[in-house]
Design brief:
alpha+beta; Cytochrome p450; 6-stranded mixed sheet; 17 helices; globular; lyase
């Protein structure tokens, strides 16, 4: 009897696999590449190294193709001239449904009345205008205090650390759920101060790597570490949920936190859902800023000409002082940051196809998209690493986004036509990043404080920028394989 049941289950599974494998391409659809494995398709290659996989598919099929990935069909569009056909269609293509899938998969969060438009409106009230100015001032004051607490008391003593660990710690610790910013030393009211083992190793390795680092399709885990990593990630979630719960917060909350809580209550979210939603917001506002600062400083520390140019500009902008005004133009720094993001920002911009749609390319070609499929833009591959747009795209060139007269460069071309989208680290269209001005200023202020107040250098002068983890594409900034060991100390009075 048992063998009969097993055989029936096996036959049923095979029939289902064959059913999923029967799809064929019509003349009006993009090239279809289902892969050799039924149902699974190209999931393993996609998860192992999405950039290499998509680049290979581009060489094989061109700027648009459909691949099977774990039972789903994903149409990848790589022609930046045609991106608006996806970004501006809010009738046939939808982001919110896919966002809800990710919320459930990563944060175990299901909101009964999820309204992304209202959430963005709430964020705009706190990341624009006077609220943004106040937030920036608070951020700067606390970054200054936190950085001062990190250096050795004796100006002549070097302190050793990992650059990723330092950057992520500094840009994460000034935000606490109990208020606008925590004190420079850990306290019972701050998020990081409430975590045993110290905020830096805990957050930079456990939170970012285990909880937030995986791509949309994770690469097969290393057998020796999968059990421990899952256990650590589960523990991280539980501890953060406790800290972000109503009981874990102190009585004084930031205006943003209070307004967002009221929004969740209106949506009918219970206490557990509110806690998970707060964890999602914590990642959304902080998950990429620290890694972006790390990559920029890593490039500057390993490219002396770039570091010298940024230091000179900061010196002129601050006019010998210790403060960099938000409105002060810094085109050299801006170019170095944009070049860093071009190389390391790797989000998937994904839409669910709600109804059959005809996608018209900039070339005039038309392709039919099927209801239930997904459309994906992968800007890292195109336009950001396109050799037709950028000469030697794999190299870091701090002045790539500067004209010969030192003004910002905003004109890039492909196929003889000017590009509207030549980098896309912040997304685009209606789902572009609301917190972009705040994030840029946070990175700029941190880099300014580090290069103007510290002597900092790699522990090994021959060190290069760490390699990027190819299994971490999809959510934003890629992650390094390992850290960049550095040493730093306060600059001498003569050099300040």
């Amino acid at each position: 009897m048992l063998w009969t049941v097993l055989v029936l289950l096996l036959v049923s599974s095979l029939l289902l696999l064959l059913l999923f494998s029967r799809r064929s391409r019509s003349n009006r659809e993009p090239p279809l590449d289902k892969g050799a494995i039924p149902w699974l398709g190209h999931a393993l290659e996609f998860g192992r190294d999405a950039a290499s996989f998509v680049t290979g598919m581009k060489k094989k099929h061109g700027d648009i193709f459909t691949v099977r990935v774990a039972g789903r069909y994903v149409t990848v569009l790589l022609d930046p001239h045609s991106f608006d056909a996806v970004l501006q269609d809010r009738g046939s293509l939808d982001f919110s449904r896919y966002a809800q899938v990710l919320m459930d998969r990563i944060f175990k969060l299901r909101l009964p009345k999820y309204n992304p438009g209202e959430e963005k409106a709430i964020m705009r009230t706190h990341f624009q205008g006077d609220s943004l100015a106040a937030l920036n001032a608070t951020m700067l004051a606390n970054l200054q205090a936190l950085l001062a607490s990190e250096v050795a008391p004796n100006r002549t003593d070097w302190k050793r650390d990992g650059l990723f660990s330092l950057c992520y710690s500094l840009l994460f610790r000034y935000v606490a759920p109990s208020g606008d910013a925590p004190p420079p030393s850990p306290s019972a009211g701050s998020l990081t101060g409430s975590l045993s083992g110290g905020p830096r190793p805990f957050f930079s390795r456990c939170v970012q790597s285990c909880l937030f680092g995986g791509g949309l399709i994770s690469a097969p885990p290393r057998p020796a570490s999968v059990t421990g990593e899952k256990k650590t990630a589960g523990g991280v979630r539980e501890r953060l949920w406790r800290l972000l719960s109503l009981k874990g917060l102190s009585g004084e909350s930031s205006p943003w936190l209070r307004q967002y809580r009221r929004h969740l209550l209106r949506e009918g979210a219970d206490g557990d859902a509110q806690t998970r939603a707060m964890l999602l917001q914590l990642w959304a506002t902080q998950g990429n800023v620290g890694p972006a600062a790390f990559w920029l400083l890593a490039f500057l520390l390993t490219h002396p000409e770039a570091m010298a140019a940024v230091r000179r500009e900061f010196g002129r902008a601050a006019q010998g002082g210790n403060r960099l005004e938000q409105q002060q133009p810094t085109p050299v720094f801006d170019s170095a940051l944009e070049e860093t993001l071009r190389l390391t920002a790797a989000p998937f911009i994904t839409r669910e196809v709600l109804q059959d749609k005809t996608l018209r390319m900039a070339t005039g070609h038309e392709y039919r998209l099927r209801r239930g499929d997904r459309v994906c833009l992968f800007p890292l591959v195109s336009p950001q690493m396109d050799p037709e747009i950028y000469q030697e795209p794999e190299k870091f060139k701090y002045n790539r986004f500067l004209n010969s007269d030192g003004t910002p460069k905003r004109e890039f071309y492909k196929g003889g036509q000017r590009l509207k989208y030549y980098t896309m680290p912040w997304g685009a269209g209606a789902n572009g990043c609301v917190g972009k001005p705040f994030a840029i200023n946070a990175i700029r202020q941190l880099v300014f404080l580090v290069v103007s107040r510290l002597d900092v250098e790699p522990c090994d002068p021959a060190s290069g920028v760490p390699a990027m983890d190819p299994g971490r594409y999809g959510f934003g900034m890629v992650q390094p394989v390992g850290d960049l060991p550095i040493r730093y100390k306060v600059k001498s009075e003569e050099s300040l």
